UniProtKB/TrEMBL annotation:
Organism this protein belongs to: Paenibacillus polygoni
Subcellular localization: Cell membrane
Record membrane topology: Multi-pass membrane protein
UniProt family annotation: Belongs to the binding-protein-dependent transport system permease family.
Taxonomic lineage: Bacteria, Bacillati, Bacillota, Bacilli, Bacillales
Gene3D superfamilies, A to Z: MetI-like
This protein's name: Sugar ABC transporter permease
TM spans (from-to): 21-41, 77-97, 109-129, 159-182, 203-225, 263-285
InterPro entries tied to this protein: ABC_transporter_permease, MetI-like, MetI-like_sf
Entry keyword set: Cell membrane, Membrane, Transmembrane, Transmembrane helix, Transport
Main location: membrane
Length: 295
């Protein structure tokens, strides 16, 4: 009897150990998703005790709204530009910094430092740097004979300015992860390529890039999801303006949920964001996971 009870406890113990983590995950991640889906079919102002069922009207209103379509376009441009620029610059920096020496260690630390600074502080700093009257960036470009730019106050440059901030903050972490991936590649492979007199570009395309594909795969998916969730820089630097040129999905959801108190409408936008990220992630895994080479 004792041995039977001990055997049952031995089997149930792993589940008991993971139950607290699963409970936290369910309460703070799974439940909000289902509750958001539930709210998306209601008209609710966040204050009234009653919710009016409207079916799919929130979704049809969203899809027919020119402002929402502009938000989707802004989010797409921001995500694609941020991911491509961050990964490209980080990979180039990693190839340069993947060597020993005090100088290279110092540069690695300097590049990584923006990653550990709060995004709120960075947004305030860049708001000052991009100020059209006394900002440092306009003073620098004036030294080269260029006129002052309205970095954050003109529709043609505002989204580009936010992309610049995101790339500046993101390259440090990605660079160090790329360096870790490069250092895990066996040196014997490069020695064999040198014996075959392989050119540097050919070595990079045929050896380095395939061996680095798991790292690239991970950083690309994380960068894409992070770019879709951008909020702090927009809330502090532009508030979605000018004329909706920097408004993205997450800030749009915040606006309608917590400023206009259209909870059902905001929840419908959140469901659309969830679907978009889910579909893109699925496509990404289906198309690119087969090209990842695991050693």
């Amino acid at each position: 009897m004792m041995s039977s009870t001990s055997s049952i406890w031995h089997k149930l113990r792993p589940y008991g150990m993971v139950t607290p983590a699963l409970a936290v995950f369910g309460v703070f991640f799974i439940y909000p998703i289902f509750y958001m889906i539930y709210l998306s079919v209601f008209d609710w102002n966040f204050v009234s005790p009653t919710k009016d069922y409207v079916g799919l009207q929130n979704f049809s209103a969203l899809l027919s709204d020119d402002e929402f379509r502009q938000v989707i376009l802004n989010t797409t441009i921001y995500t694609v530009s941020t991911v491509l620029l961050t990964l490209s610059i980080s990979l180039l920096l990693a190839l340069w910094l993947n060597r020993s020496g005090a100088f290279y260690g110092f540069v690695q630390g300097a590049i990584f430092s923006p990653h550990i600074i709060s995004l709120v502080s960075i947004s305030l700093l860049w708001s000052w740097l991009m100020d059209p009257e006394y900002g440092l960036l306009n003073w620098v470009i004036s030294l080269f004979g260029f006129g002052p730019l309205e970095w954050l106050s003109h529709p043609d440059t505002s989204l580009m300015s936010l992309i610049l901030v995101a790339v500046w903050k993101g390259i440090g972490f990605n660079t160090l992860v790329f360096i870790a991936g490069l250092q895990s590649i066996p040196q014997s492979i490069y020695e064999a390529a040198a014996l075959d007199r392989s050119k540097p570009w050919r070595t990079f395309m045929r050896l380095t890039l395939p061996m680095l594909s798991p790292t690239l795969f991970f950083l690309a998916i994380m960068s894409m999801i992070g770019s879709f969730q951008v909020f702090e820089t927009i809330a502090i630097m532009t508030q979605g303006g000018p004329v909706n040129s920097t408004n993205t999905l997450v800030y749009y959801i915040y606006q309608y949920g917590f400023r206009f108190f259209k909870i059902g409408y905001a929840s419908a936008a959140g469901v659309i964001l969830l679907v978009i990220v889910g579909i893109l992630t699925l496509i990404y895994f289906r198309l690119l996971s087969k090209k990842v080479h695991y050693r």
